[in-house]
Design a protein that fits this description.
single chain, mainly alpha, 1 helix, 96% helix, 0% strand, palmitate
């Protein structure tokens, strides 16, 4: 019983870390795209 609980907690922690890394990467991609759009908008105004 204890081994199952430890396994489940370990699996949940691993999935949580993987999800955080994925969300962080997506956030960086979105931020980069937003920066490119802002730059194009500035250039279009000039």
């Amino acid at each position: 019983m204890t081994r199952i609980v430890v396994f489940c907690l370990s699996a949940a922690a691993l999935l949580g870390v993987a999800a955080c890394e994925t969300v962080e990467g997506a956030g960086k991609d979105i931020q980069s795209a937003g920066g490119a759009i802002s730059q194009e908008a500035r250039e279009a105004q000039n």
